[in-house]
Design a protein that fits this description.
The protein is of the alpha+beta class. It has seven helices and twelve strands. The chain is globular, with a radius of gyration of 22 Å. Pfam families: Gp3-like.
């Protein structure tokens, strides 16, 4: 295995509750009140929809996808949801510092270092919103690929806090059968003083709609027994995933750099676009000036 490369769960597509919209010629992130399931292919029009998006939307209310039936790949909650304080370079989108509130891995002039992490409120580098909580949740949708997942990325406190709590609760009360439970991602909304009455949407994790706790546990037990009969080793899968994730300092793929910038620093996106437009305009003016000079000469 290549050292220094974090091996993440295989990803088949993306789950989001937002989208990138164009306003005044600028592409900016915009929150939504529903899920969107996309492939990993992005065109000029945006991310291409995954066939599952249309399939699940057909059975939804008013065509809005507000819940997704899912299952989990791992029994360990921290393997399904990786959440850390993260600081990215605003230009390249590459991770510069990732911490858990106690220690952090930081890129310095002396190379990669492990340093104390005081959290967002106590860190000089975190000032100005540079460092944010960043969560990545991997889930399975359907049964076409038993090891393939869809990833939901979020910088929202509400989603990260709720998902983390639910994962640990379900693991505890199911008797460590988290990967066998029939679950569902669900959109919820709330208003706060800071939102000034505007709804804030976040993601919750619940049992499948219409299922009681007893029914869900019974199905989980049946799934567990069936997997054991097939020699499916859940503990070994979790152990391998844990080792793979710790193989690198940072989880983020360089190919995801632009998506990180769009999510983390929308102000930087707008500023960079302004700079690009100004540079483009200056180039055009210089070309026109050169042509005019040539004609006069």
């Amino acid at each position: 295995m290549i050292k220094g490369l974090s091996i993440t769960p295989p990803v088949l597509g993306r789950i989001s509750i937002g989208r990138v919209v164009e306003r005044n010629g600028k592409r900016l992130p915009d929150k939504d009140d529903q899920f969107t399931i996309t492939t990993q292919i992005q065109t000029r029009e945006g991310w291409m929809l995954h066939p599952l998006d249309e399939h699940l939307r057909k059975n939804s209310t008013n065509g809005k996808l507000r819940s997704i039936p899912i299952s989990l790949l791992f029994n360990d909650p921290d393997l399904n949801l990786r959440a850390e304080y993260s600081l990215f370079d605003r230009i390249t989108g590459r991770p510069m510092c990732v911490g858990n509130g106690e220690t952090c891995r930081r890129v310095t002039t002396a190379g990669m270092q492990t340093l104390p992490c005081p959290g967002i409120d106590g860190c000089e580098m975190a000032k100005g919103g540079a460092c944010k909580p960043y969560g990545r949740l991997n889930v399975k949708i359907g049964s076409d690929d038993e090891l393939g997942t869809f990833i939901f990325r979020t910088t929202g406190y509400n989603s990260i806090r709720t998902l983390a709590a639910r994962l640990h609760y379900f693991k505890a009360i199911s008797g460590d059968l988290l990967a066998c439970l029939p679950l569902e991602l669900r959109i919820r909304g709330k208003s706060t003083t800071l939102s000034r009455g505007t709804p804030i949407y976040y993601v919750d994790l619940t049992l499948r709609e219409g299922m009681t706790l007893e029914e869900a546990f019974t199905q989980a037990q049946q799934t567990h027994v069936h997997r054991q009969s097939l020699s499916f080793n859940q503990q070994a899968l979790d152990a391998v995933a844990r080792a793979n994730l710790s193989n690198g300092a940072f989880e983020e793929d360089p190919d995801e750099a632009q998506a990180v910038i769009d999510e983390f620093y929308p102000d930087a996106v707008a500023k960079n676009q302004d700079v690009t437009q100004k540079v483009s305009l200056n180039d055009k003016l210089e070309k026109l000036s050169t042509k005019a000079t040539a004609v006069l000469n």
